[in-house]
């Protein structure tokens, strides 16, 4: 059935209240990376699930003409990160190689503030809007005027804050990659012992692809496959936008993604579509919840670009209702 629009949402949430958190116990830390250069692997060709060879720009660098809030589907691109892509290539004195970048990936949370610390736009501020596993980038949104002056290799420092976030009244709910800033502004509320969570779409778990098999759920994303045209139409997935807050049902992302009845994972769309088999728009997880303690509400405005005030307007939502038994 269609996701019902909860009456409290139309009336300014009525008696519903914001969920309590352990924010006072969280630790904020500075982590840093540099603006990455795009990478092309051995061959620039990408073999599509339809057997077609394509030459398309991919992940990394500074995307100048796309931004969070724009369409994630239908672009002449593959796994595009519509913002500024960061990684930390620093040599590590201790631990396994790449530990500095894994720390950047782990500690960064969606909604964290970022600040440029080198180059011509030193001092400019942006916002973390996603994390992309595999290539291992943190994606930061900056105003277009800032992006035009940023340079590959410029340093960016984040106020990393949010890992370890808990909701004491919902101990069975796991938060990942979620900053308190985003949670406060998202519109998540409690009412009658349930979490009311605004989303733009629900996605059936059988559509999830690349990212399954990972042993953890905090260092990246999981792709939404768009190869089933019937399900794409039914759930309006051709209208997915970068920054949309979406629910995957049923999906348990606590210890790495797995299909588990009765569990819902809500996350944010972080990169564009792909025609490669098993791939599609990526979703970074934010909240993992037992179905009985959640009520999803359909809100076209549930996009981080609007929720965090990064843009005044975004691509229009799709028409029609998303279908889900949740």
Automatic annotation (TrEMBL):
Residues 45-183, 185-307 form the DUF4438 domain. Pfam families: DUF4438, DUF4438_C. InterPro entries: DUF4438_C, DUF4438_N, TM_1086_sf, TM_1086_SG_dom. Coiled coil: none annotated. This is DUF4438 domain-containing protein.
């Amino acid at each position: 059935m269609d996701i019902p629009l909860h009456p409290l949402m139309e009336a300014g949430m009525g008696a519903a209240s914001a969920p309590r958190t352990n924010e006072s116990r969280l630790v904020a830390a500075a982590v840093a990376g540099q603006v990455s250069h795009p990478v092309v692997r051995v061959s620039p060709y990408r073999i599509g699930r339809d057997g077609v060879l394509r030459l398309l720009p991919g992940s990394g660098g500074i995307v100048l003409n796309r931004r969070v809030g724009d369409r994630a589907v239908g672009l002449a691109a593959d796994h595009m990160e519509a913002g500024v892509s960061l990684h930390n290539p620093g040599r590590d004195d201790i631990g396994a190689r790449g530990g500095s970048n894994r720390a950047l990936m782990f500690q960064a949370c969606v909604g964290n503030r970022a600040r440029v610390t080198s180059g011509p736009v030193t001092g400019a501020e942006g916002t973390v809007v996603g994390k992309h596993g595999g290539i291992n980038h943190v994606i930061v949104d900056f105003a277009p005027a800032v992006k035009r002056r940023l340079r590959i290799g410029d340093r960016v420092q984040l106020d990393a804050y949010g890992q370890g976030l808990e909701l004491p009244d919902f101990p069975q709910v796991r938060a990942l990659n979620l900053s308190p800033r985003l949670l406060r502004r998202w519109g998540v509320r409690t009412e009658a012992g349930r979490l009311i969570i605004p989303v733009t779409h629900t996605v059936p778990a059988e559509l999830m692809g690349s990212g399954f098999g990972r042993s953890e759920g905090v260092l990246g994303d999981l792709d939404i496959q768009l190869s089933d045209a019937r399900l794409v139409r039914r759930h309006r997935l051709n209208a997915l936008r970068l920054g949309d807050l979406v629910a995957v049902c049923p999906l348990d992302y606590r210890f790495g993604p797995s299909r588990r009845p009765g569990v819902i994972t809500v996350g944010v769309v972080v990169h564009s579509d792909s025609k490669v088999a098993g791939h599609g728009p990526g979703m970074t997880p934010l909240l993992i919840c037992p179905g009985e303690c959640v009520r999803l509400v359909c809100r076209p405005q549930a996009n981080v670009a609007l929720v965090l005030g990064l843009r005044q307007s975004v691509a229009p939502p799709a028409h029609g209702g998303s279908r889900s038994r949740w």
